[in-house]
Write a structure and sequence with these properties.
Radius of gyration: 22 Å
Number of helices: 5
Oligomer: single chain
Distance between the termini: 57 Å
Number of domains: 2
Length: 153
């Protein structure tokens, strides 16, 4: 298969690949065969970028004998990953708290048996309340019932 890309399109492809590697494998412990396949593909794309003289995006490490993204490419990707992480943190927190609250209100069995549209509407209403609360106050009003030890080093 052959694809023809402009330099701008290739830059975007490299950004997507770097972001994908981060999302898929930043938590890996090194024993995922899919991670190796994804990294090999990224390396292949990096090599092509080197051949196209896209040195502002990738560079060759003589020491490691492999291709890496430049700081410029990493910063472009990580700024977007950071925004995504921030969004997922608040959104995921609101989702989990809404589910917990609704389960406390109606009970687990009733929640599981509830029509999915009715459940979705109820969850959306609670999530919207949390979204607004977090938007206005961040973590300021969020408190745990138990507290960590006072003398934490």
């Amino acid at each position: 298969m052959k694809i023809t890309l402009t330099e701008e399109e290739y830059r975007r492809l490299l950004e997507l690949v770097e972001a994908g590697l981060w999302v898929f494998h930043s938590y890996d412990e090194g024993n995922d065969p899919e991670a190796d396949a994804h990294r090999a593909l990224a390396e292949k794309l990096c090599q092509q970028a080197l051949e196209a003289k896209m040195n502002h995006l990738v560079y060759w490490s003589e020491e490691q004998q492999r291709c890496y993204p430049t700081q410029l490419l990493e910063e472009r990707v990580m700024s977007r990953v950071d925004r995504y992480d921030d969004f997922r943190f608040w959104d995921g927190l609101a989702e989990r708290l809404a589910w917990r609250d609704l389960e406390e209100q109606v009970g687990r069995r009733a929640l599981e048996r509830m029509d999915r549209f009715e459940r979705g509407n109820m969850l959306s209403e609670i999530e919207a309340w949390y979204d607004e609360e977090f938007h206005r106050h961040g973590l300021e009003n969020l408190r745990m019932k138990s507290r960590p030890p006072k003398n934490v080093n």
